[in-house]
Amino acid sequence: MNIGALDLNLLLTLDVLLAELNVTRAAQRLNLSQPSVSTQLARLRSIFNDPLLLPGPRGMLPTSRAEALREPLRLALESLQRAIAPPQAFEPDKANLTWRIAATDYMSSAIMLPVIGTLRVAAPDCRVAVFGLNPPLVAQQLEKAELDLIFHTGDRAPETLHQRKLFSERYMLAGRIGHPHLHPGLTLDTFCQLEHLIVSPDGGGFSAATDSALARIGRARRVVLSVPHFLFMLEVLASSDMVAVLPERLVRRSTQLQVIEPPLDVPGFDILMMWHERMQRDPAHQWLRQQIMAAV
C-alpha cells in the first residue's frame, strides 16, 4: 500500500470507528456528521481493499483485517501525538540523562568544576561525560548527536552553531610560591629572560598569544617547554623556576602558585558555549545551559 494515499484524518476516523464499532457514536466523538464519517469509511474500504466494518446485530463487526489494524494503529497515533505535543517541563530531580560535553582541560576546570556540584544535587540521576575538544570536528559531532554541548574560544568558532558567551578571559603570569622574580614591577627585560612553558594543544608548539604580543613590539621570550595539557603545566610550575602566562580562571584560586600581572598587554579571549539547532528548544538542554550560565 502507498502510504501517500492516506491522510491523517482518515486514520483518526478509522481509529475511532474501531473503538466504537458504530458510525453514529464515532461521528459524535469526531464532531462530524454521520454522512461525513460514512464517506470516510467508504474511502478507507477502497484504500485497504477490505470492508473493515460489517453490519452486526449490535452495531458493526470488524473484519480480520480491521482487527489486525486496531492495536498497531492506536499505538502509532499515540506515538505521533507524543511527538507533536508541546515539550513537557524538565524535572531534573526525576531525569535520567547523559550529557556529552567537549572541552579542553582548562575549560573543564573553569566551567565544569563550578557547576558540577549543582548538577549532582539538582539532577542526581543524570550523568556528564566530558570529552576532549577537537575543534575541526565539533560541528559534525554536534550534528550527529555525538555531543550535546561544547565550549570554544571565540576565535574560529563554527558559525553554524548556536552560541552564548560565558565570559571574557584575561592572561596572568604564574610561577611557584616564593619565585624570586614574580613580584609587582617585574620588568619586560626580566620577563623575557625567564624560562617559560606553554600549552600546545596540537603538540610541539613553542609560540602562543604572548609571543605574538611580544613580536608586535620587537621582543621575544625564552620558551623552553611545550606541554599538551594544563594539569601537567601546573605541576611543573609548582616545582620549578619556570613561569607561564595562563588564563586567570585557571590559576586565581591556586594555593601552589604566585600570580601577578604580566609586564605587557596580552589580548584575552572569549569563551563560548555552543550547541546544535537540534538541541535549541530541548527543555533538558535549556536547563543545563541555564545552570552553566549561573555557575560561571
Give a description of the structure.
This protein has 296 residues and is of the alpha/beta class. It is 41% helix and 22% strand. It has helices at residues 8-20, 23-30, 34-48, 64-84, 105-122, 138-143, 188-193, 209-216, 230-238, 248-251, 283-295, and strands spanning 53-56, 59-62, 98-103, 127-132, 149-153, 162-169, 171-176, 195-199, 222-227, 244-247, 257-260, 269-275. Helix 1 crosses helix 4.
Which term fits the overall shape?
A: rod-shaped
For the biggest β-sheet, the strand order reads 4-3-5-12-6
Largest sheet: 5 strands, mixed
State the separation between the terminal residues, measured CA to CA.
56 Å
List low-pLDDT spans. Answer: none
Number of continuous helical runs: 11
Q: Number of DSSP strands?
A: 12
Order of helices and strands: HHHEEHEHEHEEEHEHEHEHEEH
Helix-and-strand structural type: alpha/beta
Helix content: 40-55%
Radius of gyration: 32 Å
Mean pLDDT across all amino acids: 92
Strand content: 15-25%
What's the structural blueprint in terms of helices and strands?
Blueprint: H1 8-20, H2 23-30, H3 34-48, E1 53-56, E2 59-62, H4 64-84, E3 98-103, H5 105-122, E4 127-132, H6 138-143, E5 149-153, E6 162-169, E7 171-176, H7 188-193, E8 195-199, H8 209-216, E9 222-227, H9 230-238, E10 244-247, H10 248-251, E11 257-260, E12 269-275, H11 283-295
Helix pairs in contact: 1-2, 1-3, 1-4, 2-3, 5-11
Q: What's the quick description here?
A:
With 296 residues, the protein is of the alpha/beta class. The chain has eleven helices and twelve strands.
